[in-house]
Amino acid sequence: MIGDLHCHTRLSDGSLGIEEIIAFAVKKGLGTIAITDHDCLAGTVRGKVIGARHGLQVIPGVELSSTFEEADKNVHILCYLPDFPDMLEGLCKRNSQARKRASHFMMLQVAKRYNIPTEFIAKCATGSTNLYKKHIMQALIECGYADCFNGELYKELFTKNGENSILITPKYESTKSVIDAVHEAGGIAVLAHPYLTGCEEYIDDFIKIGIDGIEVNHPSANEEQQEVLRKKASKAKILVTGGSDFHGLYNEYKVSLGDYTTSDDELHALLTYKSKQKRLQKKLAQNAEAQAEA
Length: 294
Prior knowledge:
The protein is globular, with a radius of gyration of 20 Å. It has 12 helices and 7 strands. The protein has helices at residues 18-27, 44-53, 89-114, 118-123, 133-142, 152-158, 175-184, 194-197, 203-208, 223-236, 264-271, 273-293; strands at 3-7, 32-35, 57-68, 73-80, 188-191, 213-217, 239-242. It is 45% helix and 14% strand. By secondary structure, the protein is an alpha/beta fold. It has a 7-stranded mixed sheet with strand order 1-2-3-4-5-6-7.
């Protein structure tokens, strides 16, 4: 039942389609995956149906963008198992619009600097719900200006405050409002890859505003860092998850599907989390009622 709970498809910034990811997961012997496209729920139902045909459990999910204003950082929140996913559509749309505005500016800058038609750059994002940095890099690679996705040119173009940077960071809704939206939709809110976004020192703040778990097992965190995150989660009595953050050709790291996973016990805790929370809330309500009557 071991699962990779962080996978991206072509609908966001992955290079593989839903069917291809599911076939790959089955081939690798995974029992569970979660499709967590950026600010996009379009693949969840289809993934669940196709997964069932192959004996693979596909957990509905989405990776939501947010802005943690206190530190001026973009923080990603993984939402799992929303009861009312339609309630997140408005948030996803607003996030996507913010990303499109930023991506359009970066595309124009690259087209101007390297004499690449904007139509060609946009074509590299065919099938996606948005234009991502890796699509821009694909255009540069295909036109001979770069030979890899994450090399020197990528760092030059997309490093914040770099001398030749074209990076525009979108302004998203606050992290608290995104966590609240996940809960309103009946979902579970997990802090994604804190070391990748550089927000690990603010985990206590995220716990205070309602985070349900932390993504611990991720390629951006070494063993020592994972242990730090695990202890934080244990102390706060919140969930632990893991996933490869798989993007196929566009991977940030040299990683394959299933290289970073959520253990059986951690997966069981995630799948039973909402029912346990409901029982706890019911018990607290009964205790409060009993005290009021006493």
